[in-house]
């Protein structure tokens, strides 16, 4: 098979430019800012102590230092949740592309505040920077996935949307590499590590304004069919049947939609049955992702490498290696996303993750008796990371953009991404308590929650790969239910939809599908 035969490698120049710009100029910032404090934690805490000692004449007590550091970490997550919750409203008000451009300025301001904290000896600037960057990252999680989903051709929508996850994992790897002792992870340079945040958004501000706006936003939200068609042609191969199909589908959604585009209320997501189920599937995926044990795996990584005989001075380089594995598998997953489908990539890699977590329990628990088990634990950890990078890493963020029409899409993505931050905070604060209480047996909790969430998702999530957004929404309206060993999907409310359409036809209505709430 030639590279040119793979649909992903048939991306237009505008599509490739827009995808890379969003991945490296926006999504990258989320991954980088999540990971960049891991290395200089102790150095920044020492800076807090030194600054307050010079200011007040006495050092901080241990409890007060812990409170200040906890606030610095927590404020990033709190404002991230706020940013995600309002991302849909902002995207609908001023547009997808313009929202991403303006969001870059938040990252620039936040990064400058963090970088300036050390020379000015003002630790509060780090807190202010984390406050602003948290808002930026929260907005990014929603805006990037919405924009990438809406500009992508149907046949490669998974690959294009997955550019977001490529940017995230590349950001994490960049933070790990730049945080090395030989680079910026030193007492002298840690503020430059924090300040590097400003570089990607500055570059994005010079490129993203020239990228075409989302055609679906122009057509369905701004009623500008001419501009929408022009941009659609830039994001699709010229004279391809898929281009005309995409324009036709967009026109059908415009004339048939009853979702009050531009005036959609968040409460409607919970009142309408078809929207409520799609929302619950998205929330369940976020719960599954955050409770999948990924934080525990990385928390145990250092001790696993130590037990395996890796020198303490070399552990940071080995951890960078795990980050590199994550990046490589995410790149491999780009063409695979539209080849294997979302359900398969959720099911099989997650099964590998669950098995790895269950095997990690005896492997970690008995490695003091059998030293060779430490090597097995590392192998299990790597298999787990591969499974996460294939399924639960990228799919929960991109799926909400695929399962809603234009009207509710922004609000739905905002709520689901807000759950991402909420679950992240709960897992972060409960992890140390669980680890101290039950040790490696906490993997049982992660495995159970992951299994239950995954079962719910597989029962009610239709395959989205290679299908139009309207077809996916119709499956939720008809009450999609997966039944094992049944070749065709079962629809709980199919008879209601058929009856409603018959009634509409008999009354002389247009050939559109009546909304069943």
Automatic annotation (TrEMBL):
Q: Which InterPro entries match?
A: GLUT (IPR045263), MFS_dom (IPR020846), MFS_sugar_transport-like (IPR005828), MFS_trans_sf (IPR036259), Sugar/inositol_transpt (IPR003663), Sugar_transporter_CS (IPR005829)
Taxonomy, top ranks, is: Eukaryota, Metazoa, Spiralia, Lophotrochozoa, Platyhelminthes
Which positions, given as ranges, span the membrane? 67-90, 102-122, 128-148, 160-178, 190-211, 278-300, 315-334, 346-366, 372-399, 411-429, 441-461
Q: What is its main location?
A: membrane
Q: Gene3D superfamilies in the record, alphabetically?
A: MFS general substrate transporter like domains (1.20.1250.20)
Keyword flag Hydrolase? no
Single GO MF annotation: fructose transmembrane transporter activity
Keywords for the protein's UniProt record, in alphabetical order? Cell membrane, Membrane, Transmembrane, Transmembrane helix, Transport
**PANTHER family in alphabetical order:** FACILITATED GLUCOSE TRANSPORTER PROTEIN 1, SOLUTE CARRIER FAMILY 2
| GO biological processes | fructose import across plasma membrane
Q: Which SUPFAM superfamilies match?
A: MFS general substrate transporter
Domain named Major facilitator superfamily (MFS) profile: residues: 19-465
Looking up Pfam families in the UniProt record yields: Sugar_tr
Q: Where in the cell is it found?
A: Cell membrane
Q: Which GO terms describe its cellular component?
A: plasma membrane
> What protein am I looking at?
Slc2a-1
Q: Could you say which protein family the record assigns here?
A: Belongs to the major facilitator superfamily. Sugar transporter (TC 2.A.1.1) family.
């Amino acid at each position: 098979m030639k590279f040119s035969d793979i649909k992903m490698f048939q991306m237009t120049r505008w599509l490739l430019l827009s995808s890379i710009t969003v991945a490296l100029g926006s999504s990258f910032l989320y991954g980088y800012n999540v990971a960049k404090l891991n290395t200089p934690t102790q150095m920044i805490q020492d800076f807090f102590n030194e600054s307050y000692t010079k200011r007040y004449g006495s050092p901080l007590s241990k409890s007060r230092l812990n409170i200040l550091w906890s606030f610095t970490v927590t404020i990033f997550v709190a404002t991230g949740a706020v940013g995600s919750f309002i991302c849909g409203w902002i995207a609908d008000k001023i547009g997808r592309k313009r929202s991403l451009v303006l969001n870059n300025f938040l990252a620039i301001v936040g990064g400058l505040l963090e970088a300036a904290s050390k020379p000015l000896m003002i630790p509060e600037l780090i807190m202010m920077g984390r406050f602003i960057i948290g808002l930026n990252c929260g907005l990014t999680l929603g805006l990037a996935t919405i924009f990438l989903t809406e500009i992508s051709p149907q046949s490669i929508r998974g690959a294009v949307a997955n550019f977001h996850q490529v940017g995230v994992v590349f950001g994490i790897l960049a933070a790990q590499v730049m945080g090395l002792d030989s680079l910026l992870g030193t007492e002298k340079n840690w503020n430059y590590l924090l300040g590097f945040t400003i570089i990607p958004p500055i570059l994005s501000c010079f490129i993203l304004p020239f990228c075409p706006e989302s055609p679906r936003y122009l057509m369905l939200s701004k009623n500008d069919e001419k501009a929408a068609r022009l941009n659609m042609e830039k994001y699709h191969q010229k004279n391809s049947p898929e281009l005309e199909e995409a324009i036709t589908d967009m026109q059908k959604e415009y004339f048939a939609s009853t979702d009050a585009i531009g005036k959609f209320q968040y409460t409607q997501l919970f009142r309408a049955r078809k929207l409520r189920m799609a929302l619950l599937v998205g929330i369940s995926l976020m719960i599954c992702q955050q409770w999948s044990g990924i934080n525990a795996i990385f928390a145990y990584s250092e001790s696993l490498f130590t037990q395996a005989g890796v020198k303490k001075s070399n552990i940071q380089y080995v951890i960078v290696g795990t980050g590199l594995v994550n990046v490589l598998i995410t790149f491999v997953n780009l063409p695979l996303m539209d080849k294997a489908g979302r359900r398969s990539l959720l099911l099989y890699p997650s099964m590998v993750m669950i098995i790895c977590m269950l095997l990690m329990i005896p492997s970690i628990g008995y490695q003091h008796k059998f030293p060779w088990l430490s090597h097995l634990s590392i192998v299990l950890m790597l298999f787990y990371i591969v499974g996460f990078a294939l399924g639960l890493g990228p799919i929960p963020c991109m799926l909400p953009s695929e399962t809603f029409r234009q009207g509710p899409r922004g609000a739905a993505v905002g709520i689901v991404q807000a759950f991402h931050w909420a679950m992240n905070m709960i897992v972060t604060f409960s992890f140390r308590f669980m680890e101290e209480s039950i040790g490696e047996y906490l993997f049982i909790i992660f495995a159970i929650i992951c299994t239950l969430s995954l079962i719910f998702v597989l029962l009610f999530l239709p395959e989205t790969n290679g299908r139009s957004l309207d077809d996916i929404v119709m499956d939720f309206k008809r009450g999609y239910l997966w039944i094992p060993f049944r070749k065709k999907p079962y629809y709980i409310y199919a008879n209601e939809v058929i009856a409603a359409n018959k009634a509409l036809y008999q009354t002389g209505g247009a050939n559109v599908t009546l909304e069943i709430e």
